[in-house]
Amino acid sequence: MAKDAEKGTWKEFIWNPRTRELLGRTASSWGLILLFYLVFYIFLAGMFALTMYVMLQTLDDHKPTWQDRLATPGMMIRPKGVEALEIIYNTHDTESWDLYAQALDKFLGPYNNSVQSQKNDVCDPDQYNFQNDMDEVKNNPKRSCQFNRTVLEDCSGIQDRYYGYQEGTPCIIIKLNRVIGLLPGKDGMAPSVKCGAKRYKIGKDEWREDNDKIGEMQYFPPNGTFNLMYYPYYGKKAQVNYSQPLVAIKFLNITTNEDVNIECKIISNNIPVGSIRDKFAGRVSFKLRINTVTV
Ligand SMILES: *[C@@H]1O[C@H](CO)[C@@H](O)[C@H](O)[C@H]1NC(C)=O
Ligand SMILES: *[C@@H]1O[C@H](CO)[C@@H](O)[C@H](O)[C@H]1NC(C)=O
Ligand SMILES: *[C@@H]1O[C@H](CO)[C@@H](O)[C@H](O)[C@H]1NC(C)=O
Ligand SMILES: *[C@@H]1O[C@H](CO)[C@@H](O)[C@H](O)[C@H]1NC(C)=O
Ligand SMILES: *[C@@H]1O[C@H](CO)[C@@H](O)[C@H](O)[C@H]1NC(C)=O
């Protein structure tokens, strides 16, 4: 009996036919609540849109408003392994190195001389290519300098289609990540790339370097420099056709059938050496292993 009565009041609470109340409120009361929330949310949305609009007005499309202190730019290699930075192949297994050659072909496509002369300008070398804005007058779009694929000579993939991979003298291409406004050298000194053995841990307090395994290396362009004319970089929107300068390294006599751990660093008179915590700041390390045993 008591249960039935309880059920009755519960039902009545949901819909009371006597007072015509739904969940204890009449239709007009519900209507007023809905109206209040509708107005309230429209007001909030309006506030949000207005703030957003004012914020966006203060931004410049062509350069970031906030940017971290120009620290040490990251470096990357091409080709790179799928998961780790390692290049492992067998000179007798065409498939194993053709993938690397194809990756380089694809990467260097936009550097073809024909493409570069169409998109970019011939600049004065060894000096910064400043294209600053005159206060409010924007100097946009900004032109970029040609970096011709042929500058990479033996590593350009033009004379040697396979970039030396077939002969066990592979080329690795290095790029410095884009940093807007970076001036990577002072007093006319261009930054350059230097590769060597990477110190690595083999046990507790035990380190090793593969110094004797690296052999002679050849850099393209000579000395592995990034010419100053490719800097400063003004950003994707301001400098649409920008081509990052590259440095190629050809390993002429690297030890085969063994892992060789290599580290390349940027040498510059005004870029601080990257911190140990950021392993890509100003340096990049990778493993190179060329197998020559017939499979
Ligand atoms: C670049 O040149 C090579 C031949 O030298 C050609 O096969 C390739 O299609 C060209 N790439 C572009 C993007 O023009
Ligand atoms: C790049 O190559 C093109 C075509 O060969 C040439 O006209 C141009 O002068 C070269 N640019 C530079 C900077 O050497
Ligand atoms: C970018 O390259 C295109 C050709 O691909 C050229 O027509 C255009 O003028 C270039 N723009 C700038 C800002 O260098
Ligand atoms: C390479 O570096 C050496 C020594 O620093 C210098 O004498 C030479 O002129 C440089 N070569 C080029 C092409 O910059
Ligand atoms: C190549 O390296 C080996 C040692 O790994 C050395 O004995 C040989 O002389 C080097 N060859 C040249 C041409 O430097």
UniProtKB/TrEMBL annotation:
<keyword id="KW-0740">Sodium/potassium transport</keyword>
<keyword id="KW-0630">Potassium</keyword>
<keyword id="KW-0813">Transport</keyword>
<keyword id="KW-0915">Sodium</keyword>
<keyword id="KW-1003">Cell membrane</keyword>
<dbReference type="GO" id="GO:0030007">
    <property type="term" value="P:intracellular potassium ion homeostasis"/>
</dbReference>
<dbReference type="GO" id="GO:0005890">
    <property type="term" value="C:sodium:potassium-exchanging ATPase complex"/>
</dbReference>
<dbReference type="GO" id="GO:0007507">
    <property type="term" value="P:heart development"/>
</dbReference>
<dbReference type="GO" id="GO:0048840">
    <property type="term" value="P:otolith development"/>
</dbReference>
<dbReference type="GO" id="GO:0001671">
    <property type="term" value="F:ATPase activator activity"/>
</dbReference>
<keyword id="KW-1015">Disulfide bond</keyword>
<dbReference type="GO" id="GO:0001964">
    <property type="term" value="P:startle response"/>
</dbReference>
<keyword id="KW-0472">Membrane</keyword>
<keyword id="KW-0812">Transmembrane</keyword>
<dbReference type="InterPro" id="IPR000402">
    <property type="entry name" value="Na/K_ATPase_sub_beta"/>
</dbReference>
<keyword id="KW-0735">Signal-anchor</keyword>
<keyword id="KW-0739">Sodium transport</keyword>
<keyword id="KW-0325">Glycoprotein</keyword>
<protein>
    <recommendedName>
        <fullName>Sodium/potassium-transporting ATPase subunit beta</fullName>
    </recommendedName>
</protein>
<dbReference type="GO" id="GO:0006883">
    <property type="term" value="P:intracellular sodium ion homeostasis"/>
</dbReference>
<dbReference type="GO" id="GO:1990573">
    <property type="term" value="P:potassium ion import across plasma membrane"/>
</dbReference>
<dbReference type="GO" id="GO:0042472">
    <property type="term" value="P:inner ear morphogenesis"/>
</dbReference>
<dbReference type="Pfam" id="PF00287">
    <property type="entry name" value="Na_K-ATPase"/>
</dbReference>
<comment type="similarity">
    <text>Belongs to the X(+)/potassium ATPases subunit beta family.</text>
</comment>
<keyword id="KW-1133">Transmembrane helix</keyword>
<comment type="function">
    <text>This is the non-catalytic component of the active enzyme, which catalyzes the hydrolysis of ATP coupled with the exchange of Na(+) and K(+) ions across the plasma membrane.</text>
</comment>
<dbReference type="InterPro" id="IPR038702">
    <property type="entry name" value="Na/K_ATPase_sub_beta_sf"/>
</dbReference>
<dbReference type="GO" id="GO:0048923">
    <property type="term" value="P:posterior lateral line neuromast hair cell differentiation"/>
</dbReference>
<feature type="transmembrane region" description="Helical">
    <location>
        <begin position="30"/>
        <end position="56"/>
    </location>
</feature>
<keyword id="KW-0633">Potassium transport</keyword>
<dbReference type="GO" id="GO:0036376">
    <property type="term" value="P:sodium ion export across plasma membrane"/>
</dbReference>
<keyword id="KW-0406">Ion transport</keyword>
